[in-house]
Write a structure and sequence with these properties.
By secondary structure, the protein is of the alpha+beta class. It has helices at 15-24, 63-82, 101-114, 124-130, 150-163, 206-212, 288-295, 298-306, 308-319, 324-331, 384-397; strands at residues 5-11, 31-34, 51-52, 86-88, 91-95, 120-123, 138-142, 146-148, 167-169, 174-179, 184-188, 192-200, 219-231, 242-245, 257-260, 266-269, 273-274, 343-357, 366-371, 374-379, 410-413.
């Protein structure tokens, strides 16, 4: 086996790719992790609010629910043992009005069926004993909600994978993939690699890699930019944990929430703004290739045709992008003490790679498509960072010692 010949090549150095490399290194030798940026975690994995979700939102009995609950426990334990900054601060889902209280009961029942420990429904006064600035008639409290330094987590996983002899190649991008009966060839800017099995977890670009190999063409990534405001405070932080509004089950977005970060700052956000490019982190950035590719896919038009609420949401978020007043109104449903002067546009901006199916459905499930020599993870179980370690174990369980994928060639797993 030559220097550029590997058993496994993983494309994508986000938290999922790094977790997979670490997990698979316990079973296989000669693994390559290929990342197009100069360091790991440069996109969604390093640009989020660092929330470790408890798992009460997912539909009971689904793989998504199981992996989120398992992943929450595994991630918190991993951070404790590896010294990654992580705090168990708890999550509050707030009922802004009395008519919202029955929804908390439904969320609690769902969470209990998922195995989320310690869920409680507390009155508004009990909420304010713990979070004095919180608003609301009541709240669902989950003690396993946590905050983490997501960049430090991704880097720790990458370093551990490297310690286990995984080859990490940075600043090099896969340009062409050629599959043969016995191997797959990956041509990059700087060279050519071969592998017995390729795993595509390229996040924002995972669908393109799959399309290049003739699979996953029913799906396309629609990028949504998530923007934040930080809260200026001369004293103690406005809150000590996380406050969420009751989620709208029609959309996979959780809406603007209030989060204390691991550094002690308080964030409002993210919103969900249609982005004019897969890496368009500024409203002024436009990638014509990305826009035209999306417009040519029938899933985009079907999403607008069959889901008018999605169109209204996108227009409203686009119109209110970088609007302090919009963020203030949304967040003030959850917390007192905010003013326009206290908000500053945060440098943290992320892109959510929302997968859309050709029928227009916004996919909120895990989607995997395969060829004989490749596995394409098109939509990681959301929330992906929380599920990363459990998801990596699940992937490993479905790869045989002979480097074959054991499930159906194309599947959506709920």
């Amino acid at each position: 086996m030559g220097a550029n010949d590997f058993n496994l090549v993983i494309i994508g150095g986000g938290v999922i790719g790094c977790a997979l490399a670490r997990e698979l290194a316990s079973r296989f030798q000669r693994i390559l992790l290929l990342e197009k940026e100069s360091s790991v975690g440069q996109h969604a994995s390093g640009r989020n609010s660092g929330v470790v979700h408890s798992g009460f939102n997912a539909t009971p009995g689904t793989l998504k629910a199981r992996l989120c609950v398992e992943g929450n426990k595994s991630l918190r334990e991993y951070c404790r043992t590896r010294g990654v900054p992580c705090e168990d601060v708890g999550t509050w889902v707030v009922a802004p009005e009395a008519r919202d209280l029955p929804k908390l009961v439904s969320l609690k029942e769902r969470g209990q069926r998922n195995g989320v420990p310690g869920l409680e429904i507390l009155s508004g006064s009990d909420l304010r004993q713990r979070e004095p600035n919180a608003r609301g008639e009541g709240a669902l409290y989950s003690p396993t909600g946590a905050i983490v330094d997501s960049q430090a987590l991704t880097l720790a996983l990458a370093n551990e994978a490297r310690d286990e002899k995984v080859t990490l190649v940075l600043a090099d991008e896969a340009l062409q993939l050629t599959e043969c009966a016995e191997s797959i060839r990956i041509t990059t800017r700087r060279g050519t690699y071969t592998a017995q099995l390729l795993i595509n977890c390229a996040g924002l670009h995972s669908d393109r890699i799959a399309h290049a190999m003739g699979v996953g063409r029913d799906y396309i990534v629609a990028p949504f930019r998530g923007e934040y405001f930080s809260v200026k405070s001369s004293g103690k932080p406005l809150i000590n944990s996380m406050l969420y509004d009751i989620p709208n089950p029609q959309f996979p977005f959780l809406g603007i929430h209030v989060t204390r970060t691991i550094s002690g700052s308080v964030l409002l956000g993210p919103n969900a703004v249609p982005a004019f490019g897969r890496e368009a982190y500024s409203p002024r950035q436009v990638n014509l290739k990305d826009v035209l590719e999306l417009l040519r896919h029938r899933g985009f038009w079907n999403a607008l045709l069959h889901n008018r609420e999605l169109f209204k949401l996108g227009w409203r978020e686009l119109r209110n992008s970088y609007s302090k007043r919009h963020f203030l109104l949304q967040a003030s449903r959850l917390v007192n003490g905010l003013t326009l002067d206290s908000l500053t546009a945060d440098t943290r901006v992320g892109i959510r790679p929302q997968l859309i199916r050709s029928d227009g459905r916004l996919v909120d499930d895990l989607v995997i498509e395969t060829t004989p020599r490749s596995v394409h993870i098109l939509n990681v179980v959301s929330p992906g960072m929380t599920s990363a370690l459990a998801f990596a174990r699940w992937i490993s369980e479905h790869i045989t010692d002979q480097l074959a994928w054991t499930r159906r060639p194309a599947e959506v797993l709920v």
